[in-house]
Recover the amino acids of this structure.
């Protein structure tokens, strides 16, 4: 394009051009050249720059305004092409198309920001996400709101504690914030403080009381990263498992869901930011039919409950709305020093037994390998057995159990009546390396609390090696070098803080216990879900709920599962009911039968 000077400058040049010398002409050319470059730079930095916008997905880092209900966000122009699909829980969220934000060549910065803000404001949880941007707030992104439930959902059950079990007086086990009566250190097996006769089904009370000590509780649900429902689900079903019809077994669960759905907090994510705890195995809450003979209640099959996250001591490998947390042990330290002292003691112990097992055979279960394990223990000179059949008192003595674990290098943990056992956590507390025979006993259960690389802290011997090949456990464990044994034992001992529940009446200073790990995992889960909803994507591609156990085993960045070496361990029962049908329901029933036998 030809440069044009102002009209008056051009005419003056024509009138005086002939009278100027060469020097003046050079000055004029220099001036015109400078003017040209000024125009060029102005056009580049002012005009063109005006149509360029920042398209990052960061939340607006401006300080949180407590009065603001719809905070502004920076424009998001990087949404994926695929719309948001149904979540693992089965609910769907509003689709955000990838072309929701207009092109930068057609939109000014103010219009782009306005459009993006209107889009983001559709999500009522954005104020909660913004708290993490406040770097001066140590609770940013970690707030938990606790529902103030009517007492019939929790405290009233404790007042009627004698009804919580047909065979066990649960009243003594609900004392001391759920830890039970203190254990005396007569034989020197325990520490002098922090040890209690804790019932394995007491997590409902322990977790709820630990929540009261959580440092980032809030009364403002709009800033909450997660919402806790203090319903004693395990205690509720324990009252009615035997001799009650399905209506009675379901009553409290239906009442709870009805109460929650009427709360404004529920509408934020239709319950997908809610979580609750049940100190029982998942099969007690997965009744498929309304037949009176079917086991348990249907809490985890209620449409609303499918959106919530339920923390149980044993989860289902085929369902997406429950997550495994550790069984409670006997140790509930009140301060960090108690944990450090115990860990140091476990490292220094002399362990005379190569392996040990505490348990009873399962003659009614043809698939159980317990009988073969017991036989191997009896025949081995380096194996120790504590038989628990017929209510043997030593097997139900915390002191006897912990003493055996403390004197063993490896502790055998075959399946119990279901996949998992409390014994696994008692043994690791004693610094004993667990030996698992089914991946569902730990590796796919406690993915929040145990390392993904299970070889660093445990030994895996497939059940068929014992059942069909009669592999010698003594020979298999004897092949592990002393140096490797020491490394594995140190790893187990280092895991202790995250596997125990601290005294709910106090708080550890720097260590994170099982409660802390679980609470943070729930927060991380909800936060990912919220961000994915804003970005219009799902966490996984082609999610298949039946393969739920596989997703937690994926490496970071992986979005789809395929075949796995453990597939044979998790094939569905032949009747096709992977929940309360067949083997799982029988496992739950057998668990109660053996609890009864233990009290005889």
């Amino acid at each position: 394009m030809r440069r044009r000077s102002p009209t008056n400058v051009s005419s003056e040049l024509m009138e005086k051009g002939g009278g100027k010398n060469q020097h003046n002409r050079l000055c004029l050319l220099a001036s015109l050249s400078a003017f040209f470059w000024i125009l060029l730079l102005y056009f580049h930095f002012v005009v063109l720059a005006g149509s360029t916008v920042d398209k990052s997905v960061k939340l607006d880092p401006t300080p949180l305004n407590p009065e603001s209900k719809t905070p502004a966000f920076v424009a998001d122009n990087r949404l994926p092409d695929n719309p948001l699909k149904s979540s693992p829980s089965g609910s769907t969220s509003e689709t955000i198309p990838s072309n929701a934000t207009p092109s930068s060549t057609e939109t000014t910065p103010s219009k782009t920001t306005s459009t993006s803000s209107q889009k983001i404001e559709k999500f009522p949880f954005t104020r909660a996400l913004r708290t993490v941007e406040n770097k001066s707030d140590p609770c940013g992104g970690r707030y938990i709101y606790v529902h103030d439930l009517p007492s019939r959902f929790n405290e009233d059950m404790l007042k009627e504690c004698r009804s919580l079990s047909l065979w066990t007086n649960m009243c003594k086990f609900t004392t001391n914030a759920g830890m039970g009566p203190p254990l005396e250190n007569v034989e020197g097996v325990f520490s002098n403080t922090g040890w209690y006769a804790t019932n394995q089904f007491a997590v409902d009370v322990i977790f709820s009381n630990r929540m009261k000590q959580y440092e980032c509780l809030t009364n403002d649900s709009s800033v909450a990263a997660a919402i806790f429902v203090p319903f004693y689900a395990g205690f509720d079903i324990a009252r009615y498992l035997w001799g009650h019809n399905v209506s009675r077994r379901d009553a409290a669960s239906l009442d709870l869901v009805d109460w929650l759905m009427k709360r404004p907090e529920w509408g934020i994510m239709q319950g997908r930011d809610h979580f609750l705890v049940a100190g029982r195995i998942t099969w007690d809450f997965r009744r498929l039919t309304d037949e009176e003979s079917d086991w348990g209640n249907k809490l985890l099959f209620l449409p609303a409950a499918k959106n919530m996250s339920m923390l149980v001591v044993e989860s289902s490998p085929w369902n997406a709305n429950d997550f495994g947390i550790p069984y409670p042990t006997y140790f509930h330290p009140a301060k960090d020093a108690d944990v450090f002292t115990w860990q140091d003691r476990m490292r220094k112990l002399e362990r005379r037994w190569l392996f040990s097992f505490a348990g009873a055979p399962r003659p009614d279960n043809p698939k159980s390998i317990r009988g073969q394990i017991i036989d191997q223990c009896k025949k081995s000179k380096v194996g120790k057995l504590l038989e628990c059949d017929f209510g043997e008192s030593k097997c139900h003595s915390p002191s006897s159990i912990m003493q055996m674990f403390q004197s063993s290098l490896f502790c055998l943990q075959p399946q119990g009546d279901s996949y998992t056992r409390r014994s696994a956590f008692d043994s690791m507390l004693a610094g004993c390396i667990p030996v698992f025979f089914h991946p569902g006993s730990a590796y796919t259960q406690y993915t929040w609390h145990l390392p993904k690389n299970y070889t660093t802290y445990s030994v895996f011997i497939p059940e068929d090696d014992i059942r069909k090949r009669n592999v010698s456990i003594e020979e298999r464990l004897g092949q592990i070098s002393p140096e490797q044994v020491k490394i594995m034992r140190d790893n187990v001992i280092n895991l202790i803080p995250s596997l125990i529940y601290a005294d709910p009446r106090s708080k550890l200073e720097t260590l994170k216990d099982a409660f802390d790990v679980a609470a943070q995992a729930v927060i991380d889960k909800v936060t990912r879900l919220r961000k994915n909803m804003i970005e219009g994507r799902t966490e996984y591609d082609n999610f298949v709920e039946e393969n739920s156990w596989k997703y937690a085993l994926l490496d970071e960045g992986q979005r789809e599962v395929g075949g796995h070496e453990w597939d044979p361990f998790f094939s569905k029962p032949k009747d096709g009911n992977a929940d309360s049908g067949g083997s799982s329901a029988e496992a739950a029933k057998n668990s109660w039968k053996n609890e009864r036998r233990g009290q005889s």
In short: The two ends are 101 Å apart (CA to CA). Confidence is low (pLDDT under 50) at residues 1-20, 46-110, 574-582, 592-600. Residues 22-48 form the longest helix (27 residues). The CA atoms of residues 2 and 36 lie 10 Å apart.
